[in-house]
Amino acid sequence: MSILKEQALTEVNTKALTSFLALAGVATVLPFFIHVQLLTGPIINAIFVLALFLVGIRSALVICLIPSLMALSGGLLPAILAPVTPFIMIGNAIFVLVIDWFYNKAKDSNQGYWLGVILGAALKFAFLFLSVSFITRLLIKQELAVKVAQMMSWPQFATAVMGGLIAWIILKRLKRF
Questions:
Q1: DSSP labels for 81-122?
Q2: Cβ(82)–Cβ(68) under 8 Å?
Q3: What's the CATH architecture for 14-173?
Q4: Are 177 and 113 in contact (CB under 8 A)?
Q5: What ranges do the domains of the chain cover?
Q6: Cα 100 vs. chain centroid, distance in angstroms?
Q7: Is the separation of the CB atoms in 54 and 23 below 8 Å?
Q8: Which of 11, 15, 134, 135 is the most buried (most CB within 10 A)?
Q9: pTM to 2 decimal places
Q10: Which letter does DSSP use for residue 75 in this model?
């Protein structure tokens, strides 16, 4: 039993664990303090991308789940939108998965990165807009459904691209590209 404990402790990558905890921590607390989508969105999307490149795809996907729950509990996302929270999480995962796929498939890492960011943002936007438009029509009044659909439309694309830019700048400074 003690050998197993020692082996588990020696296999822990403390740098990756620290990075994961820091990124997850910011993704957890940020929605409680900043309630402006065009400010919070780029930072959160940058965290997703940073997590992807600093701690890996699995950790990034875990972090994709956190901000939506925190935004809901912190008031950035109105309580009536609780049913769309899983769709927002899936949209975040789509963004990260597309970036990862294009980055790994491209011969030029910068080209793969930017193609992944743009297409990932577009797919995230399309998925959220379509799914949230459908869900909100079923659950809430039409006037509010239109406002929610607008919130899940172009701002999702814009904040994802801005987050990709922020992450790219940070990753360049960290010499990850």
A1: GGGGHHHHHHHHHHHHHHHHHHHHH-SSHHHHHHHHHHHHHH
A2: no
A3: Orthogonal Bundle (1.10)
A4: yes
A5: 14-173
A6: 13
A7: yes
A8: 135
A9: 0.86
A10: T
